[in-house]
Amino acid sequence: MSNKKLLIVEDDGDVRLGYHILLNAHHYDTFFTSDSLSAVSGARTHRADLIILDLGLPAGDGFVVLEKFRANSDLATRRGRELICRSRGTTTSCWRSSDSSSASPTYL
Amino acid sequence: VILDERGNVRRVIGVDMDVTERKEAEEALEQSRKAQIQFKDDFLSHVSHELRSPLTAIKQFSSILLGGLAGELNKEQYEYQKIVLKNIGQLQAMIDDLLEVTRLEAGKLTVEPDRVSIWDAVTDALNTLLGTARAKEVTLSSDLPPDLPLAYADRTRLRQILIILLDNAIKFTPDGGAVAIQARLLPQEPSFLLLEVSDTGCGISPDIAERIFERLYQVSEPTHASRKGLGLGLYICKELVARQGGRVWVNSQPQKGSIFSFTLPVFSLKNVIAPLLRNDKWPEESVALVVVEICSRDAGPSQESQEAWSHEARSLVQRCLLPDLDVLLPSVSSSAEKERYFVAAFRDEKAVSLLADRIQQHFERLPHLKQASLTVSVSYSMLHPVSPDVGASREDIVASMAKRLDEAINSHVIPETVSS
Questions:
Q1: Vertex B317, ends B315 and B321: CA angle to 5°?
Q2: Which of B222, B237, B105 is nearest to B168 (CA)?
Q3: Is the per-residue pLDDT at B26 higher than 70?
Q4: ipTM beyond cut 0.90
Q5: Nearest residue, CB atoms, A88 vs list B49, B319, B367
Q6: Does A89 touch chain B if contact means CB atoms closer than 8 Å?
Q7: Is a pLDDT exceeding 90 seen at residue B259?
Q8: Can you tell me the distance from the alpha carbon of B58 to that of A29, in angstroms, rounded to the nearest whole number?
Q9: Which of A10, A14, A28, A93 best probes binding to B when mutated, by most B CB atoms within 10 angstroms?
Q10: Does B112 touch chain A (CB under 8 A)?
């Protein structure tokens, strides 16, 4: 069975490296983008099993990306549409709510 | 007024004050006070958010070292790294509390009540804190009657409340002590559930017990010197309970332990539909039960994908509804092959049929509906309102409507439960 693919949208370089080491150790293939533009093209290219999106991207870009993901079903991940947003102290699974800013957090 | 001998006005002495300026100053002060509060909220939210990024990196790399991913650690290095990670956890918890309070005060905290099993919520919270309790050799136990009704609460917020109370109880209980949680119907008011977290800790003196739910209140006795935190937990707890329609209090005696109690409303359809029933529309008001059924042609979709689907389906149905006419009823148990959503629609037949069409169309537009081999059917039935007796109170009307809905839902659910 091939490794699961994870796309991580995160602007902090150290956090990206941390994810890379930890997730590779658990046999995930990781792909990274650091801004809203490359997030959308990255989602298109990699067809990840899971996308981890940092909603705290500069200039509110996290929410822009979220809206783009929502509006374009071809940006969905391979299997179903799973997206986890890191934001404001909680990890939120955003497909599960009509409004990301008020989504109830899922503790992961 | 000073008069002369003949009674005519000679002089008028008075104080004429123009208060425009003062009024303006007061208004300006009020404005600036509001601006300051806004600034404080924004500032706290921003700062706590910014603090999280470096903290995430610190936590990640600490985990990397502990996991031996950068080479084997010796025993001493391992122990120290564990202390680092533990303190990161504390810092993270404090920042989370700070953010939570900011959200509470800015009115940005949402509560989405649904039917919740207290048994599940308590088991989940106890499992989460098992490690913390074990480290102190504190016994955790629960006493939940099997026939406890469902609560009408926000699952995530309930979890938060339970964790705050249980975590506190463990923290203030000496090694080898016991923490217990029990739930039952509130004796005086059976439309509420009562949950109690008791400990064998140091207890709280009455004067402190009154202030313990205040913001930033911390017990400052030397016995608690090891206590770490911002003193926001119980304040958050009180606010979360209040926003779900309950209340929280403490009974305690020094050296004899404490019992923290809180209440939550019992789930009933009445609570859910009451906001939609307006007096002036009854009894002409027609109500329909819309049923959305999602069937899977695959024998057994994985639990994960089913869960993802059910969340997506719920939010799709929700998007088709008008908040002052329709309400999506909390989920009723679904089988693996079939998932059902019920909507109470306070509309006439024509409008209901439009709503049903709209839901159907929204589902059909989903590109991966076919890929997932799911079929969706939307049906509705009109419920004939029971004419209320003369002088029936609004409460009676709501109750009778809830009963009709409940019967209609059961007629959908029960036949299959029996046959399976």
A1: 110
A2: B237
A3: yes
A4: no
A5: B49
A6: yes
A7: yes
A8: 22
A9: A14
A10: yes
